[in-house]
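tool_call: predict_structure(chain=1)
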Amino acid sequence: MISVVTPEQSERLGQILVGLLARAEAEAAFLCDRGGNILSRQAVQAYDREDNIAALASGSFFATRVLAGLLGETEFRHVIHQGATHSIFMQSLGCDLLLLVVFGRDSNPGLVRLYGQEACVDIDRCMAAAGPAPALNRFEMDPDQAPFLRVKR
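tool_result:
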């Protein structure tokens, strides 16, 4: 799990995404966590509510893991949703992040997938270069305290 992205990593992630956009002739690329929080973004075309796009795409993508399990697979590594004018490529990374690439009808979906996969390798290397994430505090709820019980006053 990613807890901190250094300024150096952030700059490198931006470079990787810019290169992906140019090679794949895509419109936007987002790197987000499982919750859809955007860690890095680059875009040729701005989209309203990019945070909503990332959150919904992330939820959709990670829901496919359940579908994969039902089919006997451990996971689906990538998904492409193709529309009449816009499409989105999504791929999970080894560092537990998700790459989203938005592209138009003039882009070749095969090239988006190829260059997206190459970008994922570079992103994984970038994130691994910083070493293991620092230990995080762990918080647990005490079930004896009935934390969700409403008290009428």
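agent: The mean pLDDT is 86. Proceeding to next step.
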